[in-house]
Amino acid sequence: MTVSITIGDIRGGGPAVMDLAELLSTRLLVQGNSGSGKSHLLRRLLEQSATLVQQAIIDPEGDFVSLAERFGHLVIDGSAHTEAELQAAGERMRVHRASVVLNLEGADAEVQMRRAAAFLGGMFEVGREYWYPVLVVVDEAQLFAPAAAGEVTDEARRASLGAMTNLMCRGRKRGLAGVIATQRLAKLAKNVAAEASNFLMGRTFLDIDMMRAADLLGMERRQAESFRDLERGYFVALGPALYRRPVPVRIGEVVTESRSAGPTLLPMAPAAPPEDIRDLILARLPERESLPRPVRPSAPPPPDILAQLAAHAASAAVEAEMEAPVVETPADKAEQKRRFLTILTEILRDEDAGFRPPPVLYQDFLVRCRIEGMGREALDMPRFRRLLATARAGVDAETAESDRWMQAERIAAPLPDDVRGIFLLIARAAMEGQPCPSDAAVARVYGTHSLGRARRQLTYLEEQNVIVLRMDGMGRRSAAVIGPGWETAPSDPSDGA
């Protein structure tokens, strides 16, 4: 049975079709430099075949999670699950014939390799009765099947390379049809690339990659330079599922969007006054917090009695002439803290401010303090971090002076700076009996877009014995602060995500 899908059109006219049934038996390799349109090609292939065959996508950059909204793919956050859980997920997705996107965004290279190897291993080891056809798409395949050892451990590299080799070499009998995409053929392990029988070669500039692409397509060496002239979205197609001879094709439009669109030119913002620019760019780096060490100068030899009397008389005269020191009252400190919180609240109203590192926010804070007439060194960096955590929790100046909030800050004091704001966010909600903050709210306070990373910080707070998390029968989460006994109302963790 022949089932064809349209991936675009042939240069010169006519639709460019791909035999999906043949693809499931012969596998596909996509190659092209960054910006050539590889991800667009994979998205077109996935969209056209989503209703025809089960799909599994290894997504290192989170580009394909948008398929879930249109086609119902299950998105699995790879960084939020253990390798054993992902292996079980790989088995179960084949048993239940569910299309899955394994999102590895935010994880480092070694974690991505281990998680992908576990998931592919589960798909590969499922029982024979579940060997249904699955289109397995691996974007940036050179990350999971590198041609040479890199900075990751040998154990992680062997596991990932072994899983990719099984997919491309032994996967056909188990119903696994590998579709791998890479920026450079030279970086992809040869035994993985060699198993593909279908090719879509995009724009390439390096000589070694152009030569390998020409060899795979059966083109003459002098024709290799033609890959430099390909426009974005154009690929040379060859293989039993495509065409018997190299044919340039233009990939068609897609209906879903990628979250990682390329850079676009924007008009320059109005130039700031030269004084502000100088303060922002050449501001003194904040000093690291360190414990003060007492200075122990060597004691000079004791002077005679006459010299001691003279020195005492001189010091007494100086002290009499000095003005009385200015004593800062508690009311002054409270007012200063209120002004600091007001400035920080204004800064955090910017949607992107939550994702800026504290040193960048600190420089902005100092400039605004100078504008308010509070001096160049209004607040040191350690105190700024503590006040930033309070501002990110959404606490106003009146609440910040309450006894209950002081108790919350004492509990948060031993915590690292980056998770202190998460604890205070939960503590504020618990004090006021509000719903438990969602994963998206926690991620924003932590300064990340990854919901999995935010959930790991909640687990860390539990391990530090400062909060307790509970899930009810409806999947709603509540949090209690250990010690005071404050507890939030239950809420759906995915609200606002």
Structure description:
This protein has 497 residues and is α/β, with parallel strands linked by helices. It folds into 3 domains: 4-251, P-loop containing nucleotide triphosphate hydrolases (Rossmann fold, 3-Layer(aba) Sandwich), CATH 3.40.50.300; 330-399, no CATH class; 402-497, Orthogonal Bundle (Arc Repressor Mutant, subunit A). 41% of the residues lie in helices and 13% in strands. The protein has 18 helices and 13 strands. The protein has helices at 20-26, 38-49, 67-71, 83-95, 109-124, 154-170, 190-193, 207-217, 274-281, 305-321, 330-348, 358-371, 381-392, 397-400, 403-412, 417-432, 439-446, 451-463, and strands at 4-10, 15-19, 28-31, 54-59, 74-77, 100-103, 134-138, 176-182, 198-201, 234-238, 247-251, 467-471, 477-481. The strands form 2 sheets. The protein has an 11-stranded mixed β-sheet. Strands 12-13 form a two-stranded antiparallel ribbon. Strand 10 and strand 11 form a beta hairpin.
C-alpha Rg (nearest Å): 31 Å
What general form does the structure show? globular
Class inferred from helices and paired strands: alpha/beta
Helix content: 40-55%
Biggest sheet statistics = 11 strands, mixed
What proportion strand? 5-15%
Number of strands: 13
The strand order across the widest sheet is 2-1-11-10-9-3-8-7-4-6-5
Distance between the termini: 43 Å
How many DSSP helices?
18
Protein name: ATP-binding protein
GO molecular function, one term: ATP binding
Keywords: ATP-binding, Nucleotide-binding
InterPro entries: ATPase_Atu1862_pred, HerA-like, HerA_central, P-loop_NTPase
